[in-house]
Amino acid sequence: MVPIHGRERAFFTSRLLFIAVLIGLMSTVLLGRILHLQVQAHERYLLQSDRNTLAVLPLAPVRGRILDRHGRVLADNRQEYILTLIPEAVDDIARTVSALRAVLPISEEDYQAFLRNRRGTHPYQAVVLRRNLSATELARFALVKGGFPGVRIETRWQRVYPYGPLFAHLLGYVGRPDARDLARDSTLVRSGLDQVGKSGLEAEYETLLRGVPGVQEVEVNARGNSVGSFEERPAQAGEDLHTTLDLDLQRTAAAAMAGHSGAVVAVEPRTGAVLAAVSAPSFDPNDFVRGLDGTEWQRLRDDPLHPLNNRFATGNYPPGSTIKPFVALVALRNGAIRPEETLAGGSYFQIPGTTHRYYDWRPGGHGRQDLRAAIRDSNDVFFYQLALRLGPTPLAQGLQDMGFGQSTAIDLPSEGRGLVPSPAWMNTRNGRERWHTGQTVMMGIGQGYMLATPLQLARATAAIAADGRLPDLRLRADRPVATRAIGVAPRQLQLVDEAMRAVVRRGTAHILADDPHDIAGKTGTAQVRRAERDVNGRVRGGSDSRHLRDHALFIAYAPASDPRIAVAVIVEHGGHGGSAAAPVAKAVIDQYLDGNSVAQP
């Protein structure tokens, strides 16, 4: 029989042995797990940790401003409140957006833009879901933000155009990058930029204005919130763009065109600096920055007055009689006429051997005149004959030398080229149609296939004012001046200058005769439809329907003795250049030379 104290010792020893074995087993398992974490799975867990908590996020730069020639701000930036979503911090984006729509209006366009901009971005980069939140919307979201992890309010810079429609076709506007923008510039994906230049100077100088995005390394938690910051490379703000534009002159030009459709362009003759350029009617680029809904876009697109069209840059118009000074210069340069030579007049002209009549705008005609008088009175019959003497190919080449049918070199993303027709052009255009003599005749008065943009007309007018030097047009103030000779002798330019002064003093623009600024100019009327005439050459029917009226044109420079400004004006369906377009040019010239015109804000 074992003593009681011996049995107790044996029981205690067996219990101690069991506990020791159990502790040994647990230690072995724990050590094995530690070994697995530190050695075998170290790289996998380290990579997962970096991916989930360390984010390299872009910092968007502040966009450069656009200024007029006196430093006045035409395009600026202001802070706005935006709603953003961090994709990695949201379990179900579609469901989250659906729930958010019960709190804030989020359009399908907003959502599609979010999905587009999300592609290629860092998972922890906040992507814009809604822009320009109001104070009411901010308060509404603040009440429920706890239920939307990964969704937050931020402030960002928004483009703003203080003068609204006034500079719309010059400045253009910015907008969300679309698929085409991303295809052209792959760096946009990770730049943090959610607005880029879409048109006008905003698009032309996108790289200059954009600046350089920065980067920031941040530690984020599972809810997408930053819990620490590491290295940062600040963004570099975009450069300001100083332009040649004059705010006061732009206001005057726009006010003079109020109620009309058309365009005005004013330039410095010797430098090509664009002082003002108006396309009427216009639109508000601020609407494009905030984003148009489908109804608003359709209203703008389908507006019968076409406010989105840039008439001064891409509008192609028959130049009408404003082409006559340039036809005269080509004829003088080519020796097709002598300065004092006269040509027969009359109420119409017939090509020898044909019966078709090409009428003068004046039913009774002008009689026999020399070149000066023919320009002064806008003698169609004279220029029919002059074009025929020149021939289509020399005439076309001469007009091209003066900038027609060519780029003006203006620093905008797109411009029209107009059209200088010729037999060679006709052959490439249509194999069935051949050039005929009547088309040559019509070129002499700027009709037929002949087309020009207001920019081209202003530039060519500047060449006459600048002693035969054709300037490249420019909007950026520090862009180098570039000109080229049009190959016309000084005495030939003097003849045309004298004739254009006479147009204002006692010719078709005599309405401006009392202006103190010694304006030289030329009126023009561009037919919208073929005129029906009676046996006496008078146009049948009235012009009660505005859309059937002729376009009114006027080109001018002043002071004629030392030109500082050249202007081109077109008033669509304005009727006559002298009565409709010339007063617009007068207002612009007066404002620029002495500030007599009062511009409305």
Q: Quick recap of the structure?
A:
It comes from Acidithiobacillus caldus. Helices cover 37% and strands 17% of the residues.
Explain what this protein looks like in three dimensions.
It is found in: Cell inner membrane; Cell membrane; Membrane. Pathway: Cell wall biogenesis; peptidoglycan biosynthesis. It comes from Acidithiobacillus caldus. The chain crosses the membrane at residues 12-35. The chain is α+β, with helices and mostly antiparallel strands and 601 residues long. It folds into two domains: 56-240, Penicillin-binding protein 2a (Domain 2) (Alpha-Beta Complex); 245-298 and 306-596, Beta-lactamase. It has 22 helices and 21 strands. Strands 2, 3, 4, 5 and 10 form a five-stranded mixed β-sheet that branches. The protein has a five-stranded antiparallel β-sheet with strand order 12-11-21-20-19. It has a three-stranded antiparallel β-sheet with strand order 1-8-9. Helix 14 (324-334) packs parallel to helix 16 (380-390).
- Give the overall pLDDT as a whole number: 88
Number of strand segments: 21
Q: What would you say the CATH architecture of the largest domain is?
A: 3-Layer(aba) Sandwich
- Could you tell me the strand content as a percent range? 15-25%
How many separate helices?
A: 22
Task: Please identify the structural class as seen in this structure.
Answer: alpha+beta
Identify the CATH class of the largest domain: Alpha Beta
Keywords:
alpha+beta; 5-stranded antiparallel beta sheet; 2 domains; peptidoglycan synthesis; cell inner membrane; about 600 residues; serine-type D-Ala-D-Ala carboxypeptidase activity; elongated; Penicillin-binding protein 2a (Domain 2); about 15% strand; PBP_dimer; about 35% helix
